[in-house]
Amino acid sequence: MTLTAEPLRVTPASRLRPGWVGRSTPARLRTVSIGLVVLTLLAGLLGGLAASQRQGATSSAWQNAEPLMVTAQAIDTSLSDADTTAAASFLQGRLQPASLERRYQNDLTDASAYVATAAREAGADPSVSTSLRTLSTELPAYAGIVQEANANERQSFYPLAAAYFAEANNLMRTSMLPAAAQLYGTEANRLTSEQDSAVSPWLAALAILALIALVVSLVLAQRWLRHQFHRTWNVALAAATVAVVVLGAELGRQRCSGQRIQTRVRVHRRTDPCAAGTSRR
Questions:
Q1: pLDDT of residue 60
Q2: Residue 54 in this model has a pLDDT that exceeds 50
């Protein structure tokens, strides 16, 4: 009996390893490049849309809220300087310098004008009406108390003058300056709320997810290139990864800071100058 061996059939590698594994290295490089480009364009498009929405909301909100915020800060500055100047003038004794008196009067005039401007800018807004009412009623009362203190000091009634100054200083620190700070804070919170509501949360989430996917894809691409070509680093991909991470971190920081703006208003905490003035007497 004669045995005849069948010819050996060689199956092409493309049939044994279909898909990604069976592709040639240039084809894989093209696929990786196209995927990274598509992810980059998608992340850039979503991030640009989110940033554009937020920028538009910020511009619109600042046009509405900024004038009153600036006026509130001006009120705070004028009141603080008036209180400081009144205390410095009191510590000079019976002969108060004319320059300090003019500065004090100018501060009161500016504060009164700014309060009127704030009332006009706020209109019928109930959220700031209490603060404006406090400032409008207590500013003349503060000026009257300081005037009584100065009159008693000129007559050498120093303990009584010090008591009046202590009352004026307490009124400023516990009521008037907090009212100005509340006025500023209310407008700052309104600005934050308008900014947050302007950007779609879905759009922001998609932009963040696209950035994360892009970073992961860049890292995987670098690992594949390292195993394929035995290179430790690919400078271009490494630089792109760092740039995307920095951009994502900055966008996340802006988003988080926009959600909760910590309003920083200068609340002036002073030691009581009247006690020092009494001890000098």
A1: 59
A2: yes
Q: Exposed/middle/buried for 123, CB within 10 Å: 0-12, 13-18, 19+?
A: exposed
pLDDT at 186 over 90: no
pLDDT digits (tens, 9 = 90+) for 147-166: 998 888 888 888 888 899 89
**Cα–Cα dist 141/240, whole Å:** 64
Environment class of 227 (CB within 10 Å of its CB; exposed 0-12, middle 13-18, buried 19+): exposed
Determine the residue type at 147: Q
CA distance 156 to 54: 61
CA atoms of 178 and 263, how far apart (whole Å): 13
Q: What is the pTM of this model?
A: 0.55
Q: Which fold has domain 65-198?
A: de novo design (two linked rop proteins) (1.20.1440)
Q: What is the rounded CA–CA span in Å between residue 143 and residue 133?
A: 16
